[in-house]
Amino acid sequence: MPLAIVIMAGGKGTRMQSDLPKVLHKAAGRALIEHVIDKSQALDPEKIILIVGHQAELVKDSVKHYPVACALQEPQLGTGHAVMQAEEPLQNFQGEVLILSGDAPLFTLESLQNLIRFHRESDAQATVLTAEMENPTGYGRVIRKPGTDSVEKIIEQKDATEEEKTVKEINSGVYVFNAETLFSSLKEITTNNAQNEYYLTDVFGVCFRKGSRVAAWKTPNPDEIHGINTPQQLAHAERLLKK
Q: Quick one: signal sequence residues (predicted)?
């Protein structure tokens, strides 16, 4: 089954306290986005689409030595809106789409390979990469159908009940979709939320409503899922990458 990879790299990264786009900050001597593209290339995809937005030209320039196509997200209206920009470059693509974030460089190639293999073997339309966190505060929770690999619900912390908050399995923000499921579901999501944005996670609501199977694969190493939003998290990622 052919694979395409969409990397979200359009965010501003205001909490980094810097004018540099977040994905161009360096860890272990290289820009965050380069770590992500290197692992993407190792998966041998048919296409890599980089979604650019904030300081798009600077980000494009920094990756011009890579065989990636850039799609512009302007204005930036959320994660779902970012992935919508990949539809045109992936027109007529029949296969699977892996979605990664340009500010999450810690995923291992092995985990991404395992996620894709699991997605294929489980006959799911969408698969979420999850991790178990001792302290899951702040993360979206993944609620499974009891005793199965199937996901029943993905719920943000702020919307979770007290019982759901006790779940330690969290959403990493890395997903594999069947391309047709992804782009047809994106057409059904709305901006009817507090941020007035298109949330990529709302796609799962469409899948659940239509009875499409959503599976979850859990990485044994929760360190992999750390994204980078602050200088402190960047320093932490640097330590983990060097290790």
A: none
pLDDT at 19: 86
- Average pLDDT in the chain: 94
Structure tokens given for 80:
């779902």
Q: How many domains does the chain have?
A: 1
Scored b (16 or more CB within 10 A) or e, 114-147 reads: bbbebbeeeebbbbbbbbebeebeebbbbbbeee
Cα 228 from Cα 209, distance rounded (Å) = 32
Residues 6+ apart with CB under 8 A from 209: none
Predicted local confidence at residue 13, as pLDDT:
79
Is residue 30 annotated as part of the catalytic site, yes or no? no
Domain holding 234, by residue range, is: 3-242
Rounded-to-integer distance, Cα 176 and Cα 4, Å? 10
Residue 180 structure tokens: 């047709």
CA-based angle 170:173:177, to the nearest 5?
115
Residues 178-197: tens digit of each pLDDT: 999 999 999 999 998 888 99
pLDDT of residue 147: 87
Q: Which of 15, 120, 209, 239 is catalytic?
A: 15
105 and 237 in contact (C-beta within 8 Å)? yes
Residue with tokens 């009875």: 211
* CATH code for the domain in which residue 227 is found: 3.90.550.10
